[in-house]
Amino acid sequence: MFMLFIISFIIVPVLKCCGTKTSTYTTQYDEVDIKEIMDNERLLVAYIGCLLDKNPCTPEGKELKRNIPDALQSDCNKCSDKQRENADAWIEFMIDNRPEDWTKLEERYNPDGSYRTKYLESKHNATSNVDESK
C-alpha cells in the first residue's frame, strides 16, 4: 500500500539513501514532527514548493525529492515503520485538505494516479468496516 510515501509526499522524514548497497533509507529524520509541518502554512508551502521546483529546498527537502521516485516505485519497501506512518499521514492530509497541491505533486510524481486510488479505496474500506460494525 503506497500511501506510505509520497511526499508523502512530503515531509515525511527525509529519506536519504546511504549508498547504493543499502536496503533501507536513513532513519536520521524519523523524529520529524509531520503534524507540525502540516499545521504550519509557511513550512508546508515551502516543502510543496521545493518538491515542485518552485523555490529552493533545504538539504532535507533535496533528499526527500531525490528519494520520492524510488520510494514510489518500490512501494516504500526501504522505509522504516515511522516513515510509512508519516507518509500515510501526509498523503491523507494532502488529498483531503490540499487537493490542488496534491494534484500538482501527483502530476509530477505519480501521473497515473495509482496512489490516490489506493488511498481512496483504503478510506472507503475503512468506512465500510466501521458501518458494518454498528
From TrEMBL:
Checking SUPFAM superfamilies in the record gives: Chemosensory protein Csp2
Q: Which domain of life is it from?
A: Eukaryota
* Secretion signal span: 1-19
Q: Which keywords accompany this UniProt record?
A: Signal
Q: InterPro entries given for it?
A: A10/PebIII, OS_D_A10/PebIII_sf
- Keyword Signal (UniProt): yes
Instruction: Give yes or no: UniProt keyword tRNA processing.
Output: no
Instruction: Name the Pfam families for this protein.
Output: OS-D
In Swiss-Prot or TrEMBL terms, this protein is called Chemosensory protein 4 variant
Q: Which organism is it from?
A: Bombyx mori
